[in-house]
């Protein structure tokens, strides 16, 4: 008796808990002998979490990268938007206003090649532009005439033109093709004739222009180009008892050089 009481006193609470666990294990093996060979996923999930040195359950490292599965759906969508931002749609093209002056060399509208000068203004938005220009050309003397060409007429021309332009290629140089029309006044005055007269006639023409702005990204840019002019209505120089001494060419050519100033 005394030996049994001594052995019972020697058993503490931990030994009792171990005995209870052993009895539960024996009973489980008796009910399912394959338990140790094929543990269920539930048993694996119920394993005790790892413990640190102090014996407390190990906690997640605060400096570690967060798990995507642990993020709420709203936070995951926000993170995805932050990682791959969507490009904003391009805004509407700006409206630009240009103005300047051009020097033009005409060959075909007057009896001889003549220089002209005048202002121009342009309004552009994106690849489209509208240009208006005024030009006054030097007065020129007719090449042929009576008395061996010593008598004839002077011809002068002043025009106003308007063009619709399209940017041809998206290059560093702003290249534009333009189609438009021209309206002007041609004046003639006889020289060294028995009956010298002055006359004024209406000038109309269709034009096609190719122009290039070299430094179009800057506020001030040089502009060069060439135009082809097809007269639709033009006065001729006629001298009585001698005949016609001048009429414009069927197609004239003009080259121009100017300075383009962009205001905004």
UniProtKB/TrEMBL annotation:
Residues 39-95 are annotated as: Disordered. It comes from the Bacteria. Residues 70-84 have a biased composition (Basic and acidic residues). Residues 54-69 have a biased composition (Low complexity). This is Uncharacterized protein.
């Amino acid at each position: 008796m005394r030996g049994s009481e001594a052995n019972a006193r020697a058993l503490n609470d931990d030994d009792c808990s171990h005995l209870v666990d052993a009895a539960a294990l024996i009973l489980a093996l008796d009910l399912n002998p394959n338990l140790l060979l094929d543990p269920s996923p539930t048993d694996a999930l119920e394993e005790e979490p790892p413990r640190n040195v102090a014996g407390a359950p190990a906690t997640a490292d605060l400096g570690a990268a967060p798990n995507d599965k642990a993020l709420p759906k709203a936070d995951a969508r926000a993170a995805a938007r932050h990682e791959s931002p969507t490009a904003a749609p391009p805004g509407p093209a700006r409206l630009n206003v240009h103005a300047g002056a051009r020097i033009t060399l005409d060959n075909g509208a007057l009896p001889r090649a003549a220089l002209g000068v005048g202002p121009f203004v342009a309004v552009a938005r994106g690849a489209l532009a509208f240009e208006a220009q005024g030009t006054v050309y030097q007065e020129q003397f007719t090449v042929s005439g009576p008395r061996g060409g010593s008598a004839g007429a002077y011809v002068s021309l002043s025009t106003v033109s308007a063009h619709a332009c399209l940017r041809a290629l998206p290059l560093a140089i702003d290249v534009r093709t333009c189609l438009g029309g021209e309206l002007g006044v041609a004046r003639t005055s006889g020289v060294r004739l028995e009956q010298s007269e002055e006359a004024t006639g209406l000038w109309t023409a269709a034009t096609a222009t190719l122009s290039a702005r070299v430094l179009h990204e800057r506020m001030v840019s040089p502009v060069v180009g060439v135009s082809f002019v097809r007269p639709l209505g033009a006065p001729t120089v006629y001298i009585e008892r001698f005949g016609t001494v001048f009429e414009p060419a069927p197609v004239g050519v003009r080259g121009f050089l100017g300075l383009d100033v962009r205001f905004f």
